[in-house]
């Protein structure tokens, strides 16, 4: 998978005053009544500034100033979208007096190093408050990189032979929007009916009719990705590995950023599930807050306990097109004897429900077996069993690269990772 | 009637000896031997600390409104025509002018007069509907002024100072033999007189009987003289908290042992304390007060909080300060919940869209209250 | 591209990896004047500060409800509520009710007559398990004794 600059995860991204939101942003839901002032906000910066920030080493701003915004810098805020109703999101000073927020903080067993103001900020979606200093876009970005990093390293070391497709799907199953939405709901987070300054700061605030931010990039965007958009390449799995800028292998970045002034193509700009996106961004922002305030190890522990401890049956995620041929290629590649299917047993061949048990042998070794209602499907099922047992090989508990971050860690022993799928 | 007359008159009424008792109310209305100023409806306020010169002339004149002997009252039929309202400047309010009734149509002697058959073209002379809306008819100056101090004093040091002052003044009066003044109205004094009172030396013997030494006569004169209200009334009631604390530290504390077993003495002290501090000792506690110390303790005991929320805010602040506790002193309504969810503004917007609600959803607490206060 | 991934979402189980208390909010209502709230008012004064401090993960919303019986309402993460009327109860009993609400999961009360509840597929009835059983059968058929099979697998037929 792709290279990640861990040392720059936080400082670079949080320091740039406008860039994080700009780089992440893909305005996804456009209401026709966006005020003019809003269009010039940093949320709508387009791509050219993207690359400049990748290479610019920005002086990291002090953390506190960035995360906990003081009440007095109100004059630097842009005019709220709904000026008659006051602030677009609750004032940070109100966070300390919200019982809901305090209870959420305690429910997640967050460290006292994380102020409730940060948690309150994590609950404000960019669609509720477009100002990057008051919404969770930056925190969510940090959180998503941390989450994706730990998810991918865990999956790869635990299942070194996983095909890329399945790996992407597993990443999504652990760290995608639907999973994070479920996590947020299980944390007991409730959404406000509509965002606003008078709303309890302990409620998730988003507006489904306003543009928001979708976390569809991670790390940084390769220069080639932008090129690949021009040439429409990168449809295959290797292209997705190379150019797909989404951790789930989706080439959503390949879609050109929608032009705001051109409202004709609005269907592609609609976010399918705005609440799920908002909930997921909140979860990412909490991870980001843990990373920023409590450090790398605490963030890893948090990710492990809340996300990677979830149950996922990887064997149910496979769909094979040509399992028998793939098995034959596998045996050829690994210098096994060619596979042979043998009928182990059968019952009720002339009945309504016959059962055939077919075993697959390679030389004298039995690779696997399966039952089926006829000989052919039993043979295919047996081949699938064999392939799954190959792909889902796990060396057990092995160390992951992030274990070596500790000061007194043992030197890294390279983990075994297979060369990839058999027929790509 | 006899029972009441046995007590000397309450404070507001030095005029009291002249004021008729409540007899006219009990007897048949419109009963009077001579054209009396007005039946019971008037503005005389017995327990007001207002000076008598501000009272209606009819009451302050010293002329008995009702003869002492009730038996002599002759019931006579007094028609409405004989009702003569008082001059308005002496009332708490300005009553509307008396209605003038036109002659009946058949009694008109003018031959040119023809009764109207329709209201069209007739002159409109207005009505009384907006009379009470005019604040000029409810002058603030005529508001009731109570005997009790308006602000209830809760500061224990101030309460102690007030008790000492009241006790000293009472003892002065008693010692000078002016027993009837114990139930009289004592004016508020200026600071010099107040200091003079506190400067008097109170000695208490083993039985709790106290003797005051010093310039008693001046103090007594100061107290009674101000009651006449001939000059501008001084309003100095209590020293500041710091002064009171200094006085307390200087003074010998033995005066607190003064016995209050004498009912007249106790009444005078309580009355004066009530005037100075606004603190009224409830009847059930009166019997337990034997000494000045007991009185101070009774007064200093903070009142029981009326609601649980007040009690918790004062006595158990740790519950309110817990971050995960939301403590609401008032009922949490649907509106509050909607507001916290951000739904309230949506509802308002929908109402506005349908022209159902102009302005906020919240309704003022009581329209009736506004009417009571005479607000439009 | 002979393999296609089927999208799934990982399943979380509370208590594995992390535990989230299911009671997220406890509404506490009392009345200042009526006698049925006497125990509740005493509970708020004496027990609640300590109870709330010990349970920081629960949001306590205390508010008066004049002319009504005192009531405690637990709000749960699954969206359900559980209300207990605590009229005329002693403070210690109310504390027990509060603990009951805090410990509840918010689910409907249902009969649990199995020692283990699992989201994992049954070993006996899973797809792979069938093939294992079948292979056992295959071995057994060589011995040509159907009674033996019946004896071996009585639970399998049930």
Describe the protein's architecture and organization:
The complex is a heterotrimer of chains A (424), B (376) and C (158). Chain A is mainly alpha-helical and 424 residues long. Chain A has two domains: 6-314, Ribonuclease iii, N-terminal Endonuclease Domain, Chain A (Orthogonal Bundle); 324-391, Double Stranded RNA Binding Domain (2-Layer Sandwich). Helix content of chain A is 40%, strand content 7%. Chain A has helices at 11-15, 19-24, 36-39, 48-55, 63-67, 99-107, 116-122, 137-158, 164-175, 177-186, 223-231, 237-243, 266-269, 274-294, 296-306, 323-333, 375-391; strands at residues 318-320, 339-347, 355-362, 365-372. Chain A has a three-stranded antiparallel β-sheet with strand order 2-3-4. Chain B is an all-alpha fold and 376 residues long. The longest helix of chain B has 20 residues, at 156-175. The radius of gyration of chain B is 30 Å and the shape is flat. The two termini of chain B are 43 Å apart. Residues 7-46 and 51-67 of chain B have low confidence and may be disordered. Mean pLDDT of chain C is 81; it is low at 129-158. In chain C, helix 1 (38-46) crosses helix 3. Chain C has two domains: 23-103, 3-Layer(aba) Sandwich (Glutaredoxin); 127-157. Chain C has helices at residues 38-46, 48-54, 91-103, 127-141, 146-152, 154-157; strands spanning 3-5, 23-30, 59-64, 71-76, 81-85. Chain C is elongated, with a radius of gyration of 27 Å. Chain C has a four-stranded mixed β-sheet with strand order 3-2-4-5, with helices on one face. The longest helix of chain C has 15 residues, at 127-141. Strand 1 of chain A pairs antiparallel with strand 1 (3-5) of chain C.
């Amino acid at each position: 998978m792709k290279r990640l600059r861990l040392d720059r995860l936080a400082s670079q991204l949080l320091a740039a005053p406008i860039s994080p939101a700009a780089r992440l942003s893909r305005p996804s839901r456009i209401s026709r009544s966006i005020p003019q002032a809003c269009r010039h906000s940093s949320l709508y910066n387009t791509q050219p500034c993207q690359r400049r920030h990748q290479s610019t080493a920005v002086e990291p701003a002090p953390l506190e100033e960035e995360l906990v915004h003081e009440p007095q810098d109100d004059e630097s805020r842009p005019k709220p979208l709904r000026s008659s109703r006051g602030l677009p999101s609750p004032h940070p000073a109100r966070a300390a007096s919200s019982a809901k927020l305090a209870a959420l903080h305690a429910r997640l067993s967050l460290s006292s190093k994380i102020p409730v103001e940060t948690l309150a900020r994590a609950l404000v979606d960019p669609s509720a408050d477009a100002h990057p200093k008051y919404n969770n876009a930056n925190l969510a970005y940090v959180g998503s990189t941390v989450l994706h990093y730990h998810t991918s390293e865990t999956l790869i070391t635990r299942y070194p032979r996983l095909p890329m497709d399945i790996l992407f799907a597993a990443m999504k199953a652990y760290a995608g929007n639907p999973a994070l939405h479920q996590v947020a709901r299980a944390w007991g987070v409730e959404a406000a009916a509509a965002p606003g300054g008078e709303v309890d700061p302990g409620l998730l605030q988003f507006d489904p009719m306003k543009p928001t931010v979708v976390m569809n990039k991670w790390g940084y965007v390769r220069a080639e990705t932008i090129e690949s958009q021009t040439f429409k390449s990168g449809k295959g799995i290797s292209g997705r590995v190379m150019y797909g800028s989404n951790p789930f292998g989706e080439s959503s970045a390949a879609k050109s950023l929608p032009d705001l002034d051109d409202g004709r193509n609005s269907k592609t700009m609609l976010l399918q599930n705005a609440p799920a996106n908002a909930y997921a961004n909140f979860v990412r922002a909490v991870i980001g807050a843990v990373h920023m305030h409590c450090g790398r190890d605490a963030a890893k522990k948090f990710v492990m306990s809340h996300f990677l401890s979830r149950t996922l049956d990887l064997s149910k995620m496979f769909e094979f097109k040509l399992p028998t041929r793939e098995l034959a290629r596998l045996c050829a590649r690994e210098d096994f004897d060619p596979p042979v299917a043998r009928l182990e047993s059968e019952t009720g061949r002339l009945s309504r429900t016959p059962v055939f048990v077919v075993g697959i042998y390679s030389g004298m070794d039995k690779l696997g077996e399966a039952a089926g209602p006829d000989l052919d499907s039993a043979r295919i099922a047996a081949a699938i069993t064999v392939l799954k047992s190959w792909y889902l090989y796990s060396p057990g508990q092995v160390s992951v690269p992030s274990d070596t971050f500790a000061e007194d860690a043992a030197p890294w022993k390279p983990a075994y990772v297979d060369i990839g799928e058999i027929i790509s | 009637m006899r029972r009441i007359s046995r007590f000397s008159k309450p404070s507001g009424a030095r005029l009291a000896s002249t004021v008729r008792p409540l007899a006219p109310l009990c007897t048949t209305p419109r009963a009077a031997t001579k054209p009396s100023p007005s039946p019971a409806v008037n503005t005389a306020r017995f327990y007001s600390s207002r000076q008598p010169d501000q009272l209606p002339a009819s009451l302050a004149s010293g002329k008995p409104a009702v003869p002492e002997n009730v038996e002599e009252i002759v019931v006579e039929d007094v028609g409405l025509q004989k009702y003569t309202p008082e001059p308005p400047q002496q009332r708490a309010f300005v009553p509307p002018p008396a209605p003038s009734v036109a002659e009946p149509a058949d009694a008109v002697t003018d031959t040119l007069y023809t009764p109207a058959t329709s209201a069209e073209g007739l002159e409109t002379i207005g009505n009384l509907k907006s009379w009470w809306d005019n604040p000029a008819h409810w002058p603030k100056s005529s508001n009731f002024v109570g005997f009790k101090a308006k602000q209830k004093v809760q500061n224990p040091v101030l309460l102690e100072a007030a008790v000492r002052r009241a006790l000293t003044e009472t003892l002065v009066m008693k010692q000078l033999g002016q027993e009837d003044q114990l139930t009289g109205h004592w004016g508020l004094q200026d600071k010099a007189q107040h200091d003079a009172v506190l400067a008097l030396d109170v000695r208490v013997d083993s039985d709790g009987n106290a003797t005051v030494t010093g310039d008693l006569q001046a103090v007594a004169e100061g107290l009674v003289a101000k009651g006449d209200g001939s000059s501008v009334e001084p309003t100095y009631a209590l020293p500041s908290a710091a002064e009171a604390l200094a006085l307390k530290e200087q003074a010998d504390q033995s005066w607190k042992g003064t016995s209050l077993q004498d009912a007249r003495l106790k009444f005078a002290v309580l009355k004066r304390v009530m005037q100075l501090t606004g603190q009224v000792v409830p009847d059930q506690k009166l019997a337990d007060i034997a000494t000045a110390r007991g009185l101070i303790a009774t007064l200093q005991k903070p009142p029981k909080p009326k609601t649980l929320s007040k009690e918790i805010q004062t006595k158990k602040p740790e519950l309110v300060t817990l971050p995960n506790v939301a403590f609401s002193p008032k009922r949490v309504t649907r509106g509050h919940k909607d507001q916290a969810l951000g739904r309230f503004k949506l509802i308002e917007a929908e109402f506005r869209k349908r022209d159902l609600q102009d302005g906020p959803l919240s309704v003022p607490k009581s329209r009736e209250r506004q009417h009571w206060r005479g607000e439009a | 591209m002979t393999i296609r991934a089927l999208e799934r979402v990982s399943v979380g189980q509370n208590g594995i990896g992390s535990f989230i208390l299911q009671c997220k909010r406890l509404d506490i209502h009392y009345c200042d004047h009526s006698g049925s709230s006497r125990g509740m008012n005493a509970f708020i004064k004496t027990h609640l500060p300590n109870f709330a401090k010990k349970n920081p993960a629960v949001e306590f919303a205390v508010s008066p409800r004049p002319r009504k019986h005192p009531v405690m309402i637990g709000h749960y993460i699954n969206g359900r509520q559980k209300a207990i009327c605590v009229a005329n109860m002693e403070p210690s009993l109310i504390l027990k009710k509060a603990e009951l609400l805090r410990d509840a999961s918010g689910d409907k009360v249902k009969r649990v007559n199995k020692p283990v509840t699992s989201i994992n597929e049954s070993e006996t009835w899973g797809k792979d398990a069938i093939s294992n059983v079948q292979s056992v059968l295959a071995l057994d058929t060589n011995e040509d004794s159907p009674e033996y099979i019946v004896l071996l697998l009585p639970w399998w037929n049930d």
